[in-house]
Design a protein that fits this description.
Blueprint lengths: L10 H23 L1 H4 L7 H8 L10 E5 L5 H9 L5 E5 L3 H13 L1 H4 L5 E4 L12 E6 L8 H14 E12 L2 H7 L3 H21 E7 L6 E8 L7
Parallel strand pairs: 1-2, 1-4, 2-3, 4-5
Antiparallel strand pairs: 5-7, 6-7
Amino acid sequence: MYRISRRHASPDLRTRMRQKLAEYRLFWREFRHTFQSTGAVLPSGRRLSRALASRVGTAAAPQRILEVGPGTGAVTAEVIARLGPADQLDLVELNPRFAASLRRRLATDAAWEAVAPRVRVLEMPVEELATDVAYDRIVSGLPLNNFSCEFVACIFEQFHRLAAPEAELSFFEYVAVRPAKALCSQADERRRLVGIQRLLQHQFAAWQVARQCILANVPPAWVHHLCLPGVTRCN
């Protein structure tokens, strides 16, 4: 098998490799220090990222897109690749080091620079995001299984408030994580996990339109796509 050595790799390939390694290092560091809000050891893989972004760029009219918890930007890169010429993207990231990384990439990555005037990095919790702007697509990377039932309910209530009529919400969860954790957890933790399952099942029963199983990810993941009723806003 022929392998490209670093010496023979193109400058563009070397730049992408350095970018990817920097993302992994940053993600691992934040996983160690802020596990509850980071929720994963590695950024989302390419197939998972593409599945999460698959609803972006599917409409003829300009769209407002919201990505919540973009981290180092693995999914963001796929969202940006699908943006229409008049689409606008808001990235809501609570972690200041991830937010700084996203801003740097908007200033240095050619594909990101091209859309930078239409992208905002909002360093804040999504539950504090003003609801006067309606989003047509919402992509979430939040680690829901790490949160309390009350906070998961709060997050979904906010998603509904932020949604335009017939907005699409895409989010993921790792396959079989909740049942596996419940098997070896204390009673309080099992109740929390069962509560999250019930909350999600309610959302799925009411609004889910599709789901995908992404086996080529570490670990494998379900991607859920929901069509939300949204809120009609007066102009």
